[in-house]
Records
---
Amino acid sequence: EDTPIGFAAVGEMDGEAYLAELNVSLEHQGRGLGRQLIDQACVWARESGYRSMLLSTFRDIPWNAPYYARQGFSPIDATEWHKPGIAAQRAHEARWHDLNRRVIMRKLL
């Protein structure tokens, strides 16, 4: 019907691909579309020369960090929080969220 049912927004952060947002409309969730969008985002990132992809999400919501972990993402080490893009993202998120609930994750491509 030419109506979007989901999207993945990808950019760059600290020299890595960055999955800024992933969204699948509620009525289409549970069909693997999110996984397919992540897979295609990773294909784009690899073809664009990136070796990894970052994202930031809630650590304790089942369809956030646990979902991304099943897709191959792992939490980054706190020693990387000083990188300019990561530090800016964390500062931005701190305005609205408890940073103890947030996690930045990486998937090697």
---
Amino acid sequence: MQESNYFEKFTKEAKQALILAQEKASEVKLTYVGTEHIMLGILLQSNSLGATVLKNFGVSVDNVEMVLKTVGRTAAKSPDTNEPTGLSGFAKQVIEDAVKCAQKYNHT
């Protein structure tokens, strides 16, 4: 399946998580949307299954943001733009793995 087709079959929650991830990356003027932003996008949807699972493991928006600040992942500025240019390599891999997992379990 082509990368552009992945998003067509995503649930509305998954699509919203990616929108929120892009907004989070934009807020800190990064040139990419990374896995950390995807995690924040999931967590920001408090009624989603993904957020529930993460929260049950003790993951919260506050602690993810604290870790990002601690390791300096919120200060990299993009040149002359406020919009991320695309997914990081790791973020692409996570999405590809999620699609493969869904296919393995016959989820549409």
---
Amino acid sequence: VSVGHPAAGCGLSVFPVPAADALTVRLEGPGDDLRGVDVYSATGQIVARGRAQGPGRNGTLTVDVSALPQGVYQLVVHTANGDRAERVVVQR
């Protein structure tokens, strides 16, 4: 997965990790805009997705991972200033 680099000072929180049913992604940076989240399997397939709605996008999205098997996934967060990848764990 190829990603850009968010602007300096852009904080990103992903919780809970490990996750069981849902992941919450929170963008904590001035002037940035959380546009969406993709969750990739180890084989590079998108297995879950979350998208911000409308022009009033805020800095928090929740992604349902309840249907995913336990394992390690790549989370790609799409923002107005670029993309950022984080490793997440789904555990039951």
